[in-house]
């Protein structure tokens, strides 16, 4: 498939995990891809999404390098653990600053260029944490809930600009992030099994599976879809227990 031929995509957090899988897949399918990251690889562009100056400079660099922008994948994010008492105000501000305001900064810088694209799309990486009430993830879950609401608001506001805005909601995905969490656990194998068991399919999802969902939402194949959250979670959302 080469449905992204002639299109340019910017992917935040594009140097690792889900973002890297997205960048590789879009490139494989014909896009020119700019991977924006705090720790960019060889061809990536340095961009801390918590800095408005860096975000503007990174989008300027994309325009300089490729001359257009059609797809924005807002994927960079950080985690936080614990119940609502576990994190102080500074930590709440820091996680929202990266996970939510980071997406807003990227959108502000990218929208003037996306408006010139005949097939513009924004895909935000949300999480099943937005709705699932996961244990010991109060701050992270709240930030992803905000990403879900932001996605809906942006989809509405930019309908007249013909910019589609959707999000993916991964379940626990096998990425370096989760690898670090497992390494820090007392019993990594037992922790991995517990995370897998939480998902009805009984396994972690792969970064490539999430990337395929992002590619669908970014591509003209989903031309009639906006304001949607696509779960890639081994059935966790669709097969959730329902009340009597
Ligand atoms: P990862 O740690 O493998 O990759 C994250 C990338 O984001 C890294 O390259 C990192 O350098 C970059 N990054 C972090 N802070 C940044 C900043 N301020 N500016 C720019 N780049 C920054 O993580 P991942 O598992 O691939 O997660 C990617 C996204 O997927 C996150 O938004 C995360 O919340 C979401 N997500 C992950 C899972 C999972 O189980 N892995 C589940 C649901 C949602």
Can you offer a commentary on this structure?
By secondary structure, the protein is of the alpha/beta class. It is built from seven helices and nine strands. The chain has helices at 17-28, 52-66, 89-114, 138-157, 176-184, 188-197, 207-218, and strands at 8-12, 32-37, 45-46, 71-74, 120-125, 163-170, 173-174, 205-206, 229-232. The strands form two sheets. It has a seven-stranded parallel β-sheet with strand order 3-2-1-4-5-6-9, sandwiched between helices. It has a two-stranded parallel ribbon with strand order 7-8. Helix 1 (17-28) packs across helix 7, helix 3 runs parallel beside helix 4 and helix 5 (176-184) crosses helix 6. The longest helix has 26 residues, at 89-114. The chain is globular and about 50 Å long. It binds nicotinamide-adenine-dinucleotide (NAD). Nicotinamide-adenine-dinucleotide (NAD) is lined by residues 12-13, 15-19, 37-39, 47-50, 75-78, 98, 125, 127, 170, 172-173, 175-178.
């Amino acid at each position: 498939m080469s449905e992204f031929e002639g299109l340019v995509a910017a992917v935040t957090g594009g140097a690792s995990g889900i973002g890297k899988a997205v960048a590789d897949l879009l490139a494989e399918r014909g896009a020119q891809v700019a991977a924006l990251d705090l720790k960019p690889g060889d061809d990536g562009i340095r961009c801390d999404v918590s800095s408005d100056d860096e975000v503007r400079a990174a989008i300027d660099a994309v325009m300089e390098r490729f001359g257009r922008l059609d797809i924005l994948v807002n994927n960079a994010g950080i985690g936080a653990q614990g119940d609502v008492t576990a994190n102080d105000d500074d930590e709440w501000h820091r996680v929202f600053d990266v996970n939510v305001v980071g997406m807003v900064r990227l959108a502000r810088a990218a929208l003037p260029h996306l408006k010139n694209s005949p097939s513009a799309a924004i895909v935000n990486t949300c999480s099943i944490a937005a709705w699932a009430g996961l244990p010991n993830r109060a701050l992270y879950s709240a930030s992803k809930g905000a990403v879900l609401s932001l996605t809906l608001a942006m989809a509405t506001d930019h309908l007249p600009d013909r910019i589609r805005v959707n999000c993916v909601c991964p379940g626990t995905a096998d990425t370096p992030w989760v690898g670090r969490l497992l390494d820090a656990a007392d019993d990594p194998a037992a922790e991995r099994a517990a995370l897998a068991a939480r998902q009805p399919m009984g396994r972690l999802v792969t970064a490539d599976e999430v990337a395929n969902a992002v590619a669908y939402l970014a591509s003209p194949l989903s031309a009639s879809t906006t304001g949607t959250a696509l779960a890639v979670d081994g059935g966790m959302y669709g097969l959730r227990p329902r009340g009597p």
